[in-house]
Amino acid sequence: MLDNHDSKRFWSKVDKSKGPLGCWIWTGTILNTKYGQFSFKKTRDLAHRISFQNMYGDLIHEKPFICHKCDNPTCVNPIHLFVGTPKENSKDMKVKGRSVSQFGETNGMAILKEYDVLHIKHLLKHGVMGTFIAKMYKVNKCTIYSIKNGENWKHLT
After folding, report:
1. Which of 147, 138, 136 is closest to 114 using CA atoms?
2. pLDDT tens digits for 38-62?
3. Does residue 36 contact residue 57 with C-beta atoms inside 8 Å?
4. In what helix (H) or strand (E) does residue 103 lie, and over which residues does it extend?
5. Which residue, of 33, 71, 78, 109, has the greatest Cβ tally within 10 A?
6. Is 32 exposed, middle or buried (0-12, 13-18, 19+ CB in 10 A)?
């Protein structure tokens, strides 16, 4: 729990302009994960966790996650937060349609474009060696063989 001084510092970093039912946006330090962070008493914690604990007490030990009903990682409005396990958090994510796997070009890790993969499939079909294709497209030969074996880019025929 925050003492009076830390509580004032914490809430001074919160934008409540959306009203009591809206998202209260953390304006302090934001991590790469998009979650807010607050430092106090030589410790650091996620801002939404601190907000939850400040409002409801220390219920976190039984279920380690503080989840967002609003799916806004910068929100610290305690009425938008609930306690959950990793499994419950994953279920909530699936129910809200946020766990859809990204494949093909929509996957942020994709190096190849769909037209590249179609060309690679064409080359493979006509007997061009996978190692040659890998060099041509500057990818690992495992990438080519995953395409050849239907492990990656399955949605393209």
Report:
1. 147
2. 999 888 999 999 999 889 887 666 6
3. no
4. none
5. 78
6. exposed
